Amino acid sequence: xxxxxxxxxxxxxxxxxxxxxxxxxxxxxxxxxxxxxxxxxxxxxxxxxxxxxxxxxxxxxxxxxxxxxxxxxxxxxxxxxxxxxxxxxxxxxxxxxxxxxxxxxxxxxxxxxxxxxxxxxxxxxxxxxxxxxxxxxxxxxxxxxxxxxxxxxxxxxxxxxxxxxxxxxxxxxxxxxxxxxxxxxxxxxxxxxxxxxxxxxxxxxxxxxxxxxxxxxxxxxxxxxxxxxxxxxxxxxxxxxxxxxxxxxxxxxxxxxxxxxxxxxxxxxxxxxxxxxxxxxxxxxxxxxxxxxxxxxxxxxxxxxxxxxxxxxxxxxxxxxxxxxxxxxxxxxxxxxxxxxxxxxxxxxxxxxxxxxxxxxxxxxxxxxxxxxxxxxxxxxxxxxxxxxx
Length: 390
What we know:
Oligomer: single chain
Helix content: 40-55%
Strand order of the largest sheet: 5-6-4-7-3-2-8-1-9
Radius of gyration: 29 Å
Low-confidence stretches: none
Strand content: 15-25%
Number of domains: 2
Number of helices: 15
């Protein structure tokens, strides 16, 4: 390492020699930096998975425009909308199809564990408004109490869901009815439920007798090929009688919910502060180590200063130490953080993993904040007078 640094720096690696002079302090500093990286990786991984889980149910449908209630900040939140707005929206020449979307949580007592499935009630005669991977099985829902179930749902055995086919369906009791799953799709557990399920709107209303067919949770619209969504949305706002409705492009609705979940909901704010705390922990640890090191070698620095070396030389040495701590501390932090996220992902079925962009972001942040800590630690040297140090 000494020879490598000497080639890179073009001089004796004074920072490396000072750090390794006290092996115990060096090891403790690396552990501290690694711990800060683990904090950031775990919190950032959970935030990323929350974003992925938030957007996942939007991939189940193929809509261009969504009409929601005024308080519908999320797909599963907010009031209902009247089906009559669907009829008014269909009057626009660019709107070619639409359906009401019903959403509710269906509990399933599996004996060893209770799971909750976020259930979508759709019109089986509207396959164009459902993602192609699900639309091919949508005709199965024309049978009363039929379902298409999430094969990645938390609490479901993989061999059990792999066997589900029209020839070998899976029946189970829920809400006082016997549901039969004839096919599966890939969803996965989220923060609001253990998985997803697709049923017909008639089956949904049978599961939730208090709901009415005239009041779906959202209205999904499909536009003619080539239609400009940005131009259609303002027209629909003028066409639909209720001015309080949220009429947005389907893509905008997904991004607005993502922003809402990450900046307004307590969960997103908590994880965001977790990332900030991890960054501050690393900043304080590196600053404390470097400040202590500068204090211990103040006479040596004073000698260099008396010989005519300027502040840039000292900043270079301390930055060398900071970058060594940041880079070497990042490696075990990355390994431990990735392991924790992988294990958590397997246990919770959440999309928890270290992505390349996350690794690059954390590494760049580690290097930047390490350098910042080093620069702060050199302030004492700038004000020091060599004559006062001997």
